[in-house]
# Entry
Amino acid sequence: MRWTRYLIPTTKEVPKDATVPSHQLMIRTGLIRQLAAGVYTYLPLGYRSLRKIEAIVREEMNRAGAIELHMPCLQPLDLWDESGRTQVMGDVLLRLAGPKGDWRTQTCLGPTHEENVTEIARAFVNSYKQLPINLYQIQTKFRGEARPKSGVLRTREFLMKDAYSFDRDKAGLDLSYQKMYDAYCRIYERCGLPYLVVEAESGPIGGDASHEFMVLTDAGEDIVAVSESGDYAANTERAIAAPIAPSDDPMQPLEEVHTPSQRTIDEVCAFLKTRPGQMIKTLIYLRPAPSAPDSHAPARAAAPANPSPVVVLIRGDHEVNEHKLKKAAGGPLELAGEGVIQNLTGADVGFAGPHGLVERGARLIIDPAVVAMRNACTGANKTGYHVRNLNPGRDFPTSGDNVVVADVRNVVDGDASPTGSGSPLRLRTAIEVGHVFKLGTKYSDALKAHFLDQDGKSKPFIMGCYGIGLNRIMAAAIEAHHDENGIIWPASIAPFEVLIVALDPREADVMSTAETLHDELEAAGVDVLFDDRDERAGFKFKDADLIGIPLRITVGRKSLADGVVELKRRDSSDVTKLAPTAVKSHVLQVMHT
Ligand code: ATP
Ligand code: MG
# Structure
């Protein structure tokens, strides 16, 4: 391909909102162009790379025995009602608008395809003899992401490979899951991505076990906890730590302290000369009203259905983990307003403490790190006062009716690995490039998707689902492989494998050598781009480094006079000089090692 006949709009200008390297570089190299917030065109160079990623993903899916099909973007809302997800998905589910009664009002754009694929299995997979089966597609997804971010890392329209496995039983699912897990590892390896597998939360997709494939990068929006020894890795949404050993300090007598204007943890700590790890945060929640049964209606603002508050206790230096709290509480909770807090504690906001609250009808959820504390500080349930030397068990119950001890906090840097190795956990920023879930019967139950088993009984499919974001692979690969001059593409997903730069395009000899090389390599199946622009050498080299094609072949007047051309890999500064006639076999050799 000749540069002058192609479209590679490289630029020095970077939009102000492009803060992460992959976003900046994808714009500067002319891989993508934003059309609207979270919506991008893949320009020719970017599309070539995306297609290569797609080919790798497809090959590995086929190799793992998955079968390709193609499901539609337009989906009837009725199907989402069957699974009960019309509401759960909230604003992420993009619906079409239209006059009342029009088909559009009953239609959405698919953010994922569990419902669609389960409907297909329900229609066509009737017997255990057809199982296991894994159906996949590579298809455009639409999501009403509130904050599209970081170029193509988070967009409202993106390409996903989604696979869905159907099995007779749990053991079958374990096997199907493992096959996908292994295929994912091969995909990321082949794409040149340094990845990490972590235990993950299932979120609104559902199911009971899942793993995320992460790439460590500051551009990511996830935080993962990884132990120094490497014996544990989990998304902080679900990461746990080894229990904190109980303090054996002797209990001191409870003491009330006047703290007239100190309400926040930091203010109180400074005043009482203590540290946040010695404080108990007393957070008061309520259970929201159940959502409206009318499923096409948007989720309503929740009103408290159950007036009895849930009091959550965590250490002052810890943060509540909403996923864990939801599980511990048996459903979602929302922070209570001022009135409820005043009613329960008899004090203004900022002075709540756990003592006496169970007696006033509250339920306590206590994080184990709080149970391990001695002589803690917290609010006194009296405006303008805090207490010192509050002791769990002595001053408030840690067991019995209306008391639950459950891990409801986020792990923090330095917590010990839960494996018992004692290895400290470190928190790292990461981007999720893939996710595998064991779904179980969530969708087959909801959609009544059953098969006839060998014993003659009708049973729901045991399902798994497996997603990979293709655009994210591309951006994450650039995050992982670039320098101050531009992208350093892994050869497997580079838009072109070889870039021929003609330094003196007005010289007939240079041009004919470059052209011959180009034609020879192209005929040998190499993806080759030929920079035939009539530009200065420095300018062309800058662009070559920017677009990051793995191998550069420079054809210039001077070196040709010596009978050679120069070969340089983008990831090294070494230059190899070869006679033009030796180039083809050399390129074919280095490309396959
Ligand atoms: P996230 O937590 O980052 O929003 P998710 O958990 O919603 O991701 P899944 O529903 O598991 O993502 O989708 C499977 C894969 O699709 C993800 O691992 C990711 O690679 C990709 N993906 C998800 N949302 C987006 C998006 N908005 N833009 C680009 N890729 C996405
Ligand atoms: Mg998401």
In short: The first helix runs from residue 21 to 28.
